[in-house]
Structures are given as C-alpha cells and as structure tokens.
Design brief:
Helix content is 36%, strand content 31%. It is of the alpha+beta class. The chain folds into 3 domains: 169 residues, 2-Layer Sandwich (Threonyl-tRNA Synthetase, Chain A, domain 2), CATH 3.30.980; 102 residues, Elongation Factor Tu (Ef-tu), domain 3 (Beta Barrel); 122 residues, Diaminopimelate Epimerase, Chain A, domain 1, CATH 3.10.310. Helix 8 links the parallel strand 18 and strand 19. Helix 3 packs across helix 4 and helix 10 crosses helix 11. The protein is elongated, with a radius of gyration of 37 Å. Bound molecules: zinc ion. Zinc ion binds next to helix 3.
Length: 459
C-alpha cells in the first residue's frame, strides 16, 4: 500500500460493498490510529525537520525515485542540512526507498571525491526523500554531484519480505475468510510483520495451511508485475487497498498472477521464486479483534530454526542433568545401609545416638534419609553430615519422646553450628546446620553430649 497515493475511504467502502463486506468505519479508524501510533513508537527514526539546520535549499524538482529499476544513480544534492552529528540530504533523483507502506527505508552510501556519507535510513517528509546520513569522510563541498548506491543485499531481503507480505495477505483471506483486512505491516530485511482483523488466535492447522499456500505460490515462481493505473481501473480489477489510506488518481498496481493484486508503492522481487521459503513464527493479539503475525523468508528461516534447536537442546540438556541428579541421589540414598547404622548406634546418657558421615550431596537427600530412618529408629537422636558443593551440611533429627523431654533438633543444630563456625536451626524434630570448616564426628558428639547432660539435668 502506498501512503502517498490517496485511496478514498468512500471508494473503499464501495469496493467492500461489492464484495459483500461492510466497513465498520468508526471501529476501523480507531484501530488504524492505534496501528499508526504503534508503528510510530517502534520506528527507529522519525524525521522531525524542525531541528535541522539547512545549509543549502535549492528550489526546483527533487526526490525522483529511480529505485524500482536501479540500485545506484549519479545524482546531485539539491538540499542538505545537519543536526548534531547527522547529515540530512535531498537528491534530485535517488535509488533509496523512503520508509512507507510498511517497508522500511534503504541504507547505503552517497559519495564523491570530497566526501563520503553512510546512509543509515531514508524517510519521507512531504514530497522530499530525506537521506539520514553519518559523515564518514571529508565535508560537503561545492561539488555536490554524487554517486549513490543502496545496500543491495539488504534491499534484496526487504524485497523478498515485501512480496511475501502480499502472498501472506491473500493466503490469510483464502484460509481464514474474506473478513481478513490488513491493519498494518512492517517489512524489514530480517523479518516481516503483518497486522490484520481477525477475532481469534490462529489454530496450528491454519498456520500450517497458510505456510503451505504461500510456499506453493513461491514454488510456482509467479512473475510479479507492476502497472500504473487510474483508480477507476484498479477498482474495476478488484485490487486490494488499505482501509483508511489515501490514494491519488494514479495508483501502482502490483500483480502476482491470478493470486494477488494490491495497490502498492514498495519494491518487490521479479518472480515469487526469489522469496525462496516462507514461515510464520509468531501470532499474537495486539488489540481487540486485531492480530499480528511475524514471518521469515529465505535464509533467515534456517538460522531461526537453528537457534530454536539450540534452545531446545539446551533445555533437554538441563532436564537430562536434573534427571541424572535425581537418579544419582536415589542411588546414593539406596546405597546407605540404614540397618547397619541402627546396629552401630551409640548411647549418650542412655539415649540412642546415630552420628554418621554420608554421601548425599543435597539437603533434599538428607531429608529423605531422615524420613527413611524414622520408620525404623523410633527413639533417639540422629546426626548426618554430608558435603554439598565443598561445604558441610549437618542434619539433626530428634524423636518425639525426646522432644517431650525438652530436647530440640533446632537447638542442637544451632549449638553445633556455633561450635563449628557456621549457621543453623530448624524445628524441634528436624533441623540443619552448615559450615565451611572441617570437623570430626567426635566434635559433634561432644556438643550433643554436653547439651543432653544440661537438658536432662533440668528434669
Ligand atoms: Zn505492498
């Protein structure tokens, strides 16, 4: 769609009527405005000429776009100015496409023997095509005859994405229904974005059908034709136009065989085969009744799938690792002979006492071990020490009958931690302590022994 060519809304309504559709003008205007605001806010450069200091401003004809047929030109700078470090240039004729109709502006170079400008973006301001540039060499001199060249590989990607956008537009209508209308688009080199009226999330099978139809049309290698026609002719041929856009008396009609016919000022491939491949990567709602799909073409699909596969395999690796850790833990837990431990138990003041070093490597493992032990070890104190990431973690469990005698695992863990230089605490029946220093099981035993003696003395 070309935003310089005015396509009156009443004509759009007439065309919609012919196709048995109604135009919800108010609703659409509202959505259009939302779209435009959204597009503006996401734009890299918005050209605001009020701050630019114009150094040269020749009157006369300028900004003839020759970029449909050529990617370079011998041109003359007719107007230039600067703001901060950027230079703004208007040429008599230019191969640089200025952002419009969703297609982003070209980049490239403008130079002569005296200076070199790197064109970072191209925007429209009224009738002018403004080249937004960084000065790379020299300074703008008297000789303003320049050689212009767009970044042609970037343009090639943009062309593929723009032509794919037209195929997508028609495919959406064919697969989802004639209620589909374009509500906005963004055509860049690395992806394309298409907004359209549709109430629901796209079903997986619909996305597949749309991808398939577009790829079929790419495989047919349909030649892409452009013609300048009057609005009347375009209307009779049923060319698709964007609601709310203004089109002039003469319009550019872009045709892809019998599949697609749209009013469009953008740059396109000469045959659909150049698009190579098409794939929708995303579908989301951006407003009530308006959806946005993102899609890729050509080589960008390969890199997208690769990065997706990398992410998937990274996820798989992480989950494998978690599985392995779980398995290791249960292996380690199973390797601990609880019956043997119970047999080895000591007594501190007639209280059964288990004090063992175990290989478990996690607090979760310690908890599980204590649970397992408690089914057989009904009365007593059990202390387990294990290494987790180079630190020692100690679990303390105290049976119910001893809690009633005012012993507490939390208190024991705290005292052990104090003795070993660490932290600890917990509940009366189960608690943990941690330390980075080395210790012996005898040290732990002496702490517990002392507390038992103190506590039992009180009774
Ligand atoms: Zn277009």
């Amino acid at each position: 769609m070309y935003d310089t060519y005015g396509f009156p809304l009443d004509l759009t309504e007439l065309m919609a009527d012919e196709q048995g559709m109604n135009v919800d003008k108010k609703g659409f205007d509202k959505e259009m405005q939302k779209q435009k605001d959204l597009a503006k806010s996401s734009q890299k450069f918005t050209f605001d000429r009020s701050n630019v200091k114009w150094m040269l401003d020749n009157k006369g004809s300028h900004s003839e776009f020759v970029g449909y047929d050529s990617e370079e030109s011998k041109s003359k700078i007719v107007k230039w100015g600067n703001e901060d470090s950027q230079v703004f240039v208007v040429l008599d004729k230019t191969p640089f496409y200025a952002e419009s109709g969703g297609q982003i502006g070209d980049s490239g170079s403008i130079e002569n023997k005296d200076f070199s400008l790197k064109v970072v973006d191209t925007q429209k301001s009224g009738d002018s095509i403004i080249h937004i540039c960084d000065l790379e060499r020299g300074s703008l001199s008297k000789d303003l005859n320049v050689d212009c060249r767009i970044d042609s590989s970037r343009r090639k990607d943009i062309k593929a994405n723009h032509s794919a956008t037209h195929l997508l537009h028609q495919a959406l209508k064919d697969i989802l229904g004639s209620h589909i209308n374009q509500a906005g688009s963004l055509v860049g080199p690395d992806y394309l974005r298409f907004d359209f009226t549709h109430p629901n999330k796209l079903a997986e099978k619909d996305i597949e059908a749309i991808d398939l139809l577009v790829n079929d049309k790419i495989a047919e290698n349909i030649s892409v034709k452009t013609e300048i026609k009057t609005l009347e002719e375009a209307k009779q041929e049923g060319a698709m136009a964007l609601f709310g856009e203004k089109y002039g008396e003469k319009v550019r009609v872009l045709t892809m065989g019998s599949f697609s016919k749209e009013l469009c000022g953008g740059t396109h491939v000469s045959a659909t085969g150049e698009i190579n491949k098409f794939m929708i990567t995303q579908d989301k709602a951006i407003a009530s009744g308006v959806r946005r799909v993102h899609a890729l073409t050509g080589q960008y699909i390969g890199s997208y799938l690769e990065s997706k596969m990398d992410a998937t395999s990274r996820l798989q690796e992480a989950s494998d690792k978690r599985e392995l850790e779980k398995k290791n833990q249960s292996d380690m837990l199973n390797a601990i002979d609880i019956d043997q431990m119970i047999e080895n138990q000591k007594h501190l003041d007639n209280i059964p006492f288990i004090n063992e070093e175990v290989a478990l490597e996690s607090t979760d493992g310690l908890k599980k071990l204590n649970k397992k032990l408690n089914t057989k070890f009904k009365s007593g104190i059990a202390v387990f020490s294990t290494s987790i990431n180079e630190n020692k973690t100690i679990s303390v469990s105290v049976s119910k009958d001893l809690i009633e005698k005012s012993l507490s695992a939390g208190h024991l863990a705290k005292c052990i931690a104090e003795k070993l230089g660490g932290g600890g605490g917990g509940k009366d029946d189960f608690a943990m302590a941690g330390t980075s220093s080395e210790f012996s099981l005898d040290q732990i035993q002496s702490v517990i022994d002392e507390i038992i003696k103190n506590e039992l003395k009180k009774i």
